Amino acid sequence: MSVHSSPAPAWTLLRHVLTHLVVPVLLATGMALTYLGAFHQPEPHGVRVDVVGRGPEVAVLAQTVQDRLGDRVAVRTVPTVDDARQALTAREIAGAYVPDPVRPTLMLAGAASDTTAVTVERMLAPVALAQGQPLDVEDVAPTGNTDPTGQGVFFYLVALSVGAYSAAIAIAAAGGRLPMRMRALLAVGAAGAVTLIATVVAGPLYGALPTSAGTIGLLAWIYTTAVVLIGVGLHTFLGRWTTLSLVTLFVMLNFTSSGGVFAPAMQPGFFASLHSFWIGSGLVEAGRTLLYFPGLGVGRQVLVLVLWLTAGAALVTVAAAVERRRAARAPVAAVRPVPPVAVEEELEESVAA
Q1: Which of 3.40.1350, 3.90.550, 3.40.190, 1.10.760 would CATH assign to domain 47-139?
Q2: Structure pTM?
């Protein structure tokens, strides 16, 4: 005689669904707060601009520009065009205005930030127009033909990040009974696969990385390995809330502070401050430097990436110790395999995010 279990009460089923809706609602809230907060109203603050030339007339012009634009810019004077060009290629300034009685010139570095260059041109073009003069624009650091906006490395970051945190959830949820050492090795391998695919697509296929694709790919492997290790480590402590945590760390705060769309000088202070040490900015700025400013070096950005990788390795080590302690306390009979439905639900949440 078969025994049939009675169906669960409707309220129990509804509560189960509502519980699973908490994560999507929090994701939507976080995405709205961070993306709109970072991108909806870009406003320059303290953008460095040079006025080129010597003498009292140039000093007066520089002060006029400063007074007109206020705290949106920080104006200084430099004696020669070469000085301004050097400052632009060193990414010390965002633009340089060269006054001329016939045809003044605005010097920009589009590869440093296309949106900043456009903003500087809009702010300084009226200076020439007020004097009844047309304005020449010279881009001293242009982007490549296959990367006209210079944002290819940012979209590369997006692909890497989504692949990396999804891989972290898959390894942590489906491989929960594997030793942490095995999960860590899978993390390194999965990070390598994600990086290889994204780099081939971004580099040879689309030309979004017109040069230095191999070097950028190696740095991207550090990036993706850090993300996957952090995800695997966090899962030990957070369980099904890991997806929300990873999206917060590596999407909401990561993309908005990376400098891929707007430079820090165009963003609110919170996101501008994150740019100095967040992992996405390390990869984006390293990639941008290797692509268009190779003489500057990427030591600081590499340090940021390595520190995040170190944090991921440390988190996995701590998680392994915690799991060993839990296993020692739990009776052997109480150890049960992870239900397939739970794994599928967590993976679905990761893909949906």
Answers
A1: 3.40.190
A2: 0.88
